[in-house]
Design brief:
This protein has 117 residues and is an all-beta fold. It contains no helices and eleven strands. The protein is globular.
Length: 117
Amino acid sequence: QVQLVESGGGLVQAGGSLRLSCAASTSTFSFRAIGWYRQAPGKQRELVATISSGGLTNYVDSVKGRFTISRDTAENTVYLQMNRLKPEDTGVYYCFADGRPGSPRYWGQGTQVTVSS
């Protein structure tokens, strides 16, 4: 059973930075893609950023230029560096990982990010 454990959330003022971590119980190369969703109160879950096994990255338009997804293969960890945070970035951030086709999507437990204005 794959486990994903997030950390790094918290309360920060607008303009500040946070770095989220997602530690996987297996090599991140075993996943086709790994990344982050977020869910704001009263809103649907939104895909924020992904990184493929080949290192390709994608971002939702609202975070481009501010967020960076990266991975440390030695530590089986994926990071989301979030800079110039805005109040609308507030939400619970969930790490996910997609294995081989036909396998289930794995989820972390979520970490709260709150950006005050």
